What we know:
Blueprint: E1 23-27, H1 34-45, E2 49-51, H2 52-56, H3 66-76, E3 82-85, H4 92-95, E4 101-105, H5 109-126, H6 138-142, H7 148-169, E5 176-180, H8 183-191
Helix pairs in contact: 5-7
Amino acid sequence: MSTAQSRVDERPDLVVARRPFARVVVVGTSCSGKSTFARDVARLAGCPRIELDELHWGPGWQPKPHAQFRQLVGQASAADAWVADGNYGAVRDVLWPKASAIIWLNYSFPRVLWQALKRTLHRCITREPFWHGNRESLRRSFLSKESILVWVLTTYHRRQRELNALRASGVFPHLHWVEFRHPAHARQWLASFHNID
């Protein structure tokens, strides 16, 4: 495995946040904690965060037109430094060539499913607003084919295969890959951010 494809979950004590983390894409299956992690990285790095979900969804949970989505991502990623979170293969060719690193939150299925259940229940109870006035509901979350829980169940393993294949393919050879297998390792990496040169 090349340096650009390093995996850092076995020795989290050696994981130190350093360059080339100027333009980072945080990926992983739904409900792995991408948004929270990206928000923390952006705050510590002092750079903008690009939330792909916000750029993708419009009011009423309607996706924005494909061309508009790509344009918004292109504009947001024109800055010198940023942290983006989301998978969205539809804009990968727009975002990844500009990125310097991919951080993969590759957590176990039971952990991700538990996080999905907790997060969904919390959002249904609090009616916490999302982008453009969208909110989760019990009906949407538990009684709909659009349920995030169904999405996690049906896409978890596919997303793992997809990301493994992308890392191994060499299509984006300039990218530095960091893979975390446990949230504690990701937190330790965040705690090392003061060591960035």
